[in-house]
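Appendix B. Raw example, untouched.
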Amino acid sequence: MFGEAFKRKYALSDKGIDNTKKGMIWTIIVNLVVMGGMGILYKLMRCYMDTLTNGFGLPEAGAFVAAVIMFIALSLITHIQQYVNTYGLVYGEVKGMRIGIAERLRKLPLGFFGKRDLADLTETLMGDVNRMEHVWSHVLGYLYGAYFSTAIIAVMLFIMDRRLAVACLWGVPVAFGLLFGSRSMANKNAEINRKAALRVSDGIQETLENIREIHATNQEDRYLTELDLKIDEHERTMIQGELATGIFVNGASIIMRLGVATTILTGANLILSGQVTFMTLFMFLLVITRIYAPFDQSLSLIAEVFLSEISASRLMEIYDSPVAGGAETFEPKGHDIVFDNVSFSYDNEQVLSGVSFTAKEGEVTALVGPSGSGKSTCARLAARLWDINNGSIKVGGVDINSVDPETLLRDYSFVFQDVVLFDDTVMENIRLGKHGATDEEVMNAAAAANCEEFVRKLPKGYDTPIGENGTKLSGGERQRISIARALLKNAPIVLLDEATASLDVENETKVQEALSKLLENKTVLVIAHRMRTVESADKIIVLKDGHVAEEGTPKELKEKEGSVFRHMLELQTKSAAWSI
């Protein structure tokens, strides 16, 4: 029963399966103990009826008091154990689930995140796990415990009188059959509601991220109106889903409760025909008051059980996604980067095809070309942020696909066009480049990246918080911090993607001078759109439409008639002249 299929169905770990079993066992015990209380009432009523009909005296009150005290003690102990083995154990499972997902996400290739919406991943990590937490703690143990305890009680009832047992229990399978028959509709409503919720999250995120542009273009009313419509749609889908589920849940509850009426009617007919005694009917009526109780909570949460299967499948999708694994040791012979007939596609769109070139150690290799030619893709593939489809990429003779990405990236420093900073101080944002770096090392890297000029003007210098993603800094200042972070790491391979794009001419010159000194004897791969930034490169690789159109030194490509590089250089020269 609790095999691999059950484990995947509810996204449970092996420990979670054990916890569910414990919760189920204690739920069975609790339900049977409660039925034992009904047995005490039945015994008391039987003695009372014997006194009325036969004149027997009531047994000593002490025996009943002792039985009641024992029942209360057992009930208290078993309920505590049930609580501990459902709610108490589940919270540890939730913690393990979130940590496990975070670890899994950390090992997934960048291509996975390119195909998933950020709001969708956030909903999976937070919303889906929260939903599973509720199912693990409130539903699974109770529901499966109710199945087994009801089955045990049903067997006893059938032994006593099969006719009354059928009259009492027929509503249970019919009620659950109705609910499970509505599963497809519930799942459809859940998917519609989830998509509506994601649209709201995306709308809010988009509005907050672009608040300055919205104000600057007087688009507040339009964005707020669109957001209101998305929220109204989400509210409408929630109401429709809850209404549909509520109809089925309440209908199932009513059907199950009809067992009370059928038991009374059947029992009355059997008593009139002399086939059963009044005490037998009384016992069944006592059982009815409690036999449906274990299902009450399960019925109210059965829709959540259906939703949980969708959430579990989304969680398992993350676990099933192949990680970028490999050896945990990386011992290359030098740090030449060799692309050999590399092809790469993204969402069935061919980005690179048959790309081959070598970026030698101790040289600056520049990747240039029109937008969309594959320059940034090459840089990311060189660091195994994505995995290639065909060909090979080797560093120092070692195929990078055979090395664990975390191990591989120890030899890489990055400065990408899109700078990512944290809501922390300047000092700590730069220190991310090298864990445990001293303040002096951080400040030396900052000076090399020309950060000192603006850091001195900050209220607390290097200890000044810079806001979320560096909102308190200009674009050029943010990029210089990113460069300082890369310089601090001092890795043998440096990838620069438009590293100086946001700097003015003066600062760009200073940073270029710093880079030329600090990047000596390293393998440097530079991606740039402005031709003047690659004039000092040792070699230029010109990409066009995902192919290597030409390669050579800046001088060779400038002098080559009809070269793509020369054409790009002439266009940018004319553009610069027009801008002046």
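End of appendix B.
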